[in-house]
Amino acid sequence: SKIRVYELAKLLGKSNKELLDILIDLGVDVKSHMSSIDNDIAQLVEESLRGASGTEGPGKKEEERSVIKTDSYEVSKGSTVKAVAQLIGISPAEAVKCLISAGLMVPADSPVDEKSLKVLQDAYNVVLTMACEDDAENEGADGTCTVIKRPRFHGDHMEPRPPIVTVMGHVDHGKTTLLDFIRKTNITAREAGGITQHIGASTVMHEGKEIVFLDTPGHEAFTSMRARGAQATDIAILVVAADDGVMPQTREAINHAKAAGVPIIVAINKVDKPAAKPDRVRQQLSDVGLAPEEWGGNTIMVEVSAKSGQGMPQLLEMILLVAEIEELKADPTVKPRGVVVEAKLDKGKGPVATVLVQEGTLCKGDILLFDSACGKIRAMIDSEGKMIDCAGPSTPVEILGLATVPQPGEVFTSVENERIARDALSSREQDLRNAQQGGPRKLSLEDLYSQLKEGDIPQLNLLLKCDVQGSSEALAASLEKMATNEVGINIVHRGVGRIAESDVMLASASNAVIIGFNVRPDANAKKVAESEGVQVRLYTIIYDAIDDVKAALEGMLKPTI
Ligand code: GDP
């Protein structure tokens, strides 16, 4: 007769954190939301809450996700001071007066220029962005523009945001089927028959809460984004087929998620199949360090069938639970920034990029600066194919209007004007050229010692690939033993077989050195290692590998050619 903390929290309508605080106040020994407590303690909590609610009045209201207030209006190109005054909600006379006091003589009927727009914005503490149908703003006065009014960025307004989820797992274990099922049944279509667009990410609804799924399953996409500097994922769903069990890519996915510090929820899939052995999967996962919570571990596992939909609501509920525990928050009132999920050159539309807003509110007309691209947002389309004017945190949107195509994983910020964006971009390109001349920028065993001394890296990250399981285990054990008080040794991943591109990307994202024992990189991996500056060291004798790492830790390793 025990109950988990998170189950009780749900029953009592409290957040996990609130309940944990209450339990600790009561002197109960609990570690996390996964801890089990006795039923009589649960009862005690319930009673104390009932008592408290009498004295404290209505309980604390659950924080709600309020969308930042934005207004948009259609105006003709070259809109007048009068029109802008209306937007702000002041009289034309007041606007003219305000401009005069700033030394600008602009009659109410004449078009606003940038200068007067800025004066009005500052005086009335709003931000006005103008986006026109075709961006040739200086052509005649035909056509319409949308002017978006939003509060000035002020910050200090953290709000819960929906979790962003990536689905991972071995090939054929059902990642695509699972994503399709979730998208088909839970899409946030406000009107029936809404068309779902494949923009690279989709927002689905469960119990009135949003969850964002990245559409490209697999740890390769996940890690290549990370190697470019962006972490877009909050939670990883690890799909394991119950009739097949833990396979090489399952282990890889686990290590990729772990290296990124992303919590894992396991979906034990295909339980509709007669050959399904879910408990065998639980056992295998325990053996690789993911112990199921029902066995006293910390990993949530849900039995599902992506085909029939069995277990899907529970899976979505667990995603929301983990999201709550992670306390995912963002501020919609700061300058927008985010990350590219997908991008391509469309024949008709030009460069199109799907981005995920991570902070702030992105609006049509904003000028964005990416690592390798820039441009003004001409139009925004959400995952239901609807044109929208603004998008807050954790919203995936497709944007049109960029000058060039950015890469997935690039981050963006909004800047004041296009000149700033272009200048920043060209100085970045210069930096990049300089850096490339300086050779690889990632870690190598030779410069490990100097980096350790400078305190740049607290530990040596290694990725091991071996020809057979036995040598991989032996090598890992010997290497891990070499950790000293000053330097830890962390094996981000070890596997059997050729060194592949995804190994290199993981090493790049984790600043790790790859050690290959009796294996070589394939052609692709070789190329990527060069461009990413990842060091790959190949050995045929275990002791050589161990000696090199030892020498590197002591700063005694001679550079190889
Ligand atoms: P992916 O490679 O991980 O994306 O796997 P897919 O989603 O393409 O699925 C591989 C195969 O498994 C397909 O033939 C699916 O129809 C099948 N499949 C996926 N999920 C289930 C399930 O829950 N039950 C059954 N019986 N088959 C499934």
Looking at this protein, list some descriptive labels.
alpha/beta, six-stranded mixed beta sheet, six-stranded antiparallel beta barrel, 17 helices, 26 strands, 35% helix, binds guanosine-5'-diphosphate
Q: Can you put this structure into words, describing what you see?
A:
There is one protein chain. The strands form 7 sheets. The chain has a 6-stranded mixed beta sheet, sandwiched between helices. Strands 14-15-21-18-17-22 form a 6-stranded antiparallel β-barrel. Strands 24-23-25-26 form a 4-stranded parallel beta sheet, with helices on both faces. Helix 4 packs across helix 5, helix 4 (81-88) packs parallel to helix 6 and helix 8 (219-227) packs parallel to helix 9 (248-260). It is an alpha/beta fold and 561 residues long. Strand 14 (337-346) and strand 15 (350-359) form a beta hairpin. It is built from 17 helices and 26 strands. Residues 54-67, 135-141 and 189-194 have low confidence and may be disordered. Guanosine-5'-diphosphate binds at residues 169, 171-177, 217, 269-270, 272-273, 305-307. One of its GO terms (molecular function) is translation initiation factor activity. It is found in: Cytoplasm.
Short overview:
This protein is α/β, with parallel strands linked by helices. It is built from 17 helices and 26 strands. The protein has a 6-stranded mixed beta sheet, sandwiched between helices. A 6-stranded antiparallel β-barrel has the order 14-15-21-18-17-22.
